[in-house]
Write a structure and sequence with these properties.
By secondary structure, this protein is mainly alpha-helical. It is built from 8 helices and 2 strands.
Length: about 220
């Protein structure tokens, strides 16, 4: 990319330009995230946001919609920091619990698939099983590498309503704040990941990372 630098480009334009140029996806993902942080900071200056370090009730949910570039980025980060072996077991336990809950809540006759997925996700959230990346202070130990699904939702209203049993409280508003249309960002991230020779086969974080750690951690 040429010109006056990424600081003058929107997050979406950074992705588009990199895809057109065929650039290595992981450095591009990092630049996209820096631009997205600027976008979110500007949003937060105009809109009160209750999300802060230690407020981690949302981090007991299953994370969906990971792109392969995000899986690769997190996996490489864990390997560089010597955490791949340490976290494989906890990731498997969380994955297996989700699969168990999924089996316990079969799709009902006439139920829309999105409603079914949401129902299963709520049942998992109600178990309050923390993300394996939460540290002892409720912070994210992979914060700079957290996936898009952990970045795009900002909560307005009291943080005490950010639990599974209060998720529908009228004072809690979880808003998706994207630097473009959601589908556009998701599609660009998926295209960016086509340059990575790994298919996670599942867009749920715990499931995808188990597959990466079992197949790629020793590469």
């Amino acid at each position: 990319m040429t010109g006056s630098g990424d600081g003058d480009l929107s997050p979406v334009r950074i992705l588009r330009a990199a895809i057109q140029a065929g650039i290595d996806p992981l450095p591009v993902l990092a630049r996209f995230r820096v631009a997205q942080e600027r976008f979110h900071a500007a949003y937060a200056r105009q809109n009160p946001v209750s999300c802060e370090r230690g407020c981690s009730s949302c981090c007991t949910q299953m994370v969906f919609d990971l792109a392969s570039a995000e899986v690769e980025d997190i996996g490489q980060h864990l390997r560089r920091n010597g955490r791949a072996v340490q976290l494989l077991g906890p990731l498997k336990q969380r994955r297996d619990l989700y699969d168990e809950i999924h089996r316990e809540h079969p799709r009902e006759t006439g139920e829309f698939i999105d409603d079914w997925i949401e129902r299963v996700a709520r049942a998992f959230w109600a178990r309050s099983v923390p993300c394996v990346f939460l540290d002892g202070d409720g912070g994210c130990s992979i914060y700079e590498h957290r996936p898009q699904s952990c970045r795009r939702f900002l909560v307005h209203g009291p943080a005490e309503f950010c639990t599974a049993d209060q998720a529908d409280h009228p004072e809690r508003q979880a808003k998706m704040v994207e630097p473009g249309e959601q589908d556009e960002v998701d599609e660009l991230l998926q295209v960016l990941g086509l340059r990575i020779a790994f298919d996670p086969e599942d867009d749920r974080m715990d499931h995808a990372l188990v597959r990466w750690l079992e197949n790629r951690s020793a590469d």
